[in-house]
Write a structure and sequence with these properties.
Blueprint: H1 9-24, H2 27-45, H3 50-57, H4 65-72, E1 73-79, E2 91-98, E3 101-108, H5 114-119, H6 127-142, E4 147-153, H7 160-164, H8 167-178, E5 185-194, H9 195-199, E6 206-210, E7 214-216, H10 220-227, H11 234-241, H12 245-250, E8 256-258, H13 269-287, H14 292-304
Parallel strand pairs: 3-4, 4-5, 5-6, 5-7, 6-8
Antiparallel strand pairs: 1-2, 2-3
Helix pairs in contact: 1-2, 4-13, 6-8, 10-11
């Protein structure tokens, strides 16, 4: 069943009318409604606020990591466990091929439905998840396989057990190790990129965001609670945080913005997957033209250029 957000209600009504027109076989009404739908989509999605983009990034029908993996990978084989504690279902690792290109794909998986959300811990990884990701990357490096990372998490799990097992160390270790991996690394924010939970698989040669994704040091809800102690300030916090792809591209914190369908990846998953696949293949092709030393030097320069300061 399709889920429509508050600002999509006019689109929902036209979609209902389209279904009725198709059922009745009224071709004239069908053609008119199709034009009306195109105009309404262009109007609605051509002037979205930052908060509306946040809502789209969290849309319950939005493709998750496993949706993309199943759409773009062939001969996919899942890798489990960190060889230290357990397997973390909040992070999935697959080795296989994308468009004939060998690839290692690592993604944060939120899960659908109550049971699956609980199994995946709502996409909030524990330290063993990040250690599994590191193991997968090291395996890819050993066999010279490019890596694609799919970011989609509200943040790393802040539970007592996660802290006891070294959550912050696991994230920091990934930042440190990923910076010197000798194979092409591509990371894409496909939904919600929250804090260190996103950064832990965000160190790459290319960091991109889907059109309706967000990347932030803290959630707008957390920001409004800390700054104003007022949950009604979420929209103001979203705007102030500058978490949308255009904002981050302007500040050179991401390299590219991927043009998922205007109406959203959740409405056209095949096109969204095709855009992601093409971006990965083109990125790997360009990165393969660099020598190993050039690849590492360029990545180091990119990472150290983040941020600004004055003396």
């Amino acid at each position: 069943m399709t889920t429509y957000l508050n600002f999509e209600q006019k689109i929902a009504q036209i979609q209902e009318d389209l279904v009725s027109a198709q059922a009745s076989g009224n071709t004239i009404a069908l053609a008119k409604l199709q034009k009306d739908l195109e105009k309404e989509v262009a109007k609605t999605f051509g002037s979205l606020s930052d908060y509306q983009k946040l809502q789209l990034a969290r849309h319950p029908d939005r493709p998750y990591a496993l949706d993309y993996i199943r759409a773009i990978m062939e001969n996919a084989y899942e890798i489990h466990g960190d060889r230290a504690f357990r397997d973390d279902p909040a992070i999935v690792c697959y080795i296989g091929r994308i468009g004939g290109q060998k690839a290692m794909v690592i993604g944060e998986q939120k899960g659908r439905g109550v049971k699956n959300k609980i199994k995946r811990n709502f996409g909030m990884p524990n330290p063993e998840g990040y250690r599994k990701a590191l193991r997968a990357v090291k395996l890819a490096e050993k066999f010279d396989i490019p890596v694609l990372m799919l970011i989609d998490t509200p943040g790393a799990y802040p539970g007592l057990g996660a802290e006891e097992r070294g959550q912050s160390e696991a994230i920091a270790r990934n930042l440190f190790e990923f910076a010197s991996v000798k194979v092409p690394m591509v990371s894409v924010v496909i939904g919600e990129g929250g804090s260190g939970g996103a950064l832990a698989i965000g160190v790459a040669d290319k960091l991109a965001m889907m059109r309706y994704s967000v990347f932030a040091v803290i959630s707008p809800e957390g920001c409004s609670a800390i700054l104003w102690s007022d949950p009604s300030k979420v929209e103001a916090a979203t705007k102030a945080l500058k978490i949308t792809p255009s904002d981050l591209l302007e500040h050179k914190l991401v390299d590219d913005v991927l043009d998922e369908p205007l109406i959203g990846a959740h409405r056209d998953k095949e096109t969204a997957a095709s855009v992601l696949k093409e971006y990965f293949l083109q990125s790997v092709k360009s990165l393969r033209e660099l020598s190993e030393d050039e690849l590492l030097e360029k990545r180091y320069t990119k990472l150290t250029a983040v941020g600004a300061y004055t003396e």
